[in-house]
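Much of what follows relies on a compact textual record of a protein's fold. The record below shows the convention in full:
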Amino acid sequence: MALSESGALLEPQTLENDYESTRPARLFLERARMAFSLSRAPLYCAIGLFVFYGLAARPDAHAQEAPEKQEQLDTQSQGGNSQQDQIPGGITAVPNRPTFASTAEMVQLGVFEIEYGLEATNGHQNINGLLKWGAVTNLELWFLNNPIERDSGTAGVGDSGAGFKYKLFSQEKARPTLAFLYVATIPTAPPELGAGAMQHLAQLLVSKDFGRHHFDFNEGVQFVGRPGSPGFDHTYFTALSYSHPLTAKWAYTAEIAGFSRANAANPASMTILAAPTYAFSSRLVFDGGAYVAAYGNFPCVTFFFGLTYSVADLYHRHRTP
């Protein structure tokens, strides 16, 4: 027995009549459901094919991306953003000599490079050296030493130093190369020949090429230790140097540089420098010239001669052609 919506009992005949009366509607709904299922079959097939293709193509995509990512990693590990590192198969010297200013450009990754020079003036001579190594990308380690220092008849070993240069970014279009330099001077010389106390130098280095014209600008501060007493005096350093090639091997450089007053014994000073340079090869560069003292404690005229030589690639990245 069945109940109506009002709760009354329905007779079997009434149920049969109701079932027969709703049969057309039920047939319509069944056919509509089948038609809807058939109409969605192509969509299901398309989705299935798309998923299958995506899963099948995924390994190939990873296989294609892997060499590209590895190539990018190799380029980054080799310092690919450095103009010097993009020279194929060769080592190129990057001199800081002969100017007081230092270039913001870096030695190539893994390359060990030396700079040595001789200075001579009335009553003063020295041999000065700088050892540089491109330890990692954009980082250059420095060690400085003056193996021979002679001043007013007194001779001996000069002061030493250690530091680093870090390139913040390379020049691109109107943007120059920018680097930071830090050097600590170690008083290894006798007091009459050296600083007699620790010194700390921090500089911002800017380098820019305008065609074949190259400029280096340095601005920094040096903290000068006081021999026999605590504390530091400080002096500011500014330098602007310019270089230009004359031929394939010959070039010239000029510079104006100055120090502010540090104390009564070290007044402000300014120098003007001029020198030719000669590239014997891409790895060996000679320089020679003079700088004059516009004012300050520097000698009137100082003559110099030196060289920059890229010794070797300690990482064996650069192959000879």
Remarks:
- The two ends are 102 Å apart (CA to CA).
- The longest helix spans residues 23-77.
- The chain is about 20% helix and 45% strand.
- The longest strand covers residues 232-245.
